[in-house]
Anti-sigma-W factor RsiW
Amino acid sequence: MKCEKSYEHLIHKYLDGDTSSEERKRLEAHLNECPHCLEHVRELKKAIAFVQSASHIEAPANFTNQVMTNLPQKKNTSKTKSKWKRWMKKHPILVAAAVFLLLMSTSVSTLWQNNEQVTFSGSGNVQIDQSSGRVVVPEGEVVEGDLVVRNGELVVEGEVRGNILLVNSEPYFASAGHVSGEIEEVNQVLDWIWYHTKNFFSEVITVLDSDDNK
């Protein structure tokens, strides 16, 4: 529609949070009168929510080179490019979901093909003993936030104020150890995929709900 095209730049500024107070009021007034543009904005918000929710998934270092290598060598015509651009604009959620699935598959492949080195991610003075395969939260130490341990045994002698995710790992708690959040163990590829998919859609719903309440 013509109105969508004329408001396209303003819509992108609005989604980026760069509109002035006057521009925001003008666009919101138009959205109240134009169901087509309103639906377009909602679809873009959903796509942004998908991308934001997948931001914690990291692609391997050689991901770009692998993708470029597998691309067909035939040059795309300007007409083909234009069709793809139009299709992506009409289906932003499908594009975002495809990006999530692609990153998810490369993340899973990298995780299970890498070596068995013991690693952890989180804050606090956490100790790693590669020889014994132990990740230790010392007595008296307080870890603020979530903790992720891979390929080892987590020994909690202190306190973890957050959730714990154990990937190919096992927990051990000393008498003084305490965890305020949930503990989840992921020891199979399907468990890993389900864990991230569940968190992904949970975060998407949260973002969409917050957008609807604005």
Notes: The first strand starts at residue 119 and ends at 121. The two ends are 26 Å apart (CA to CA).
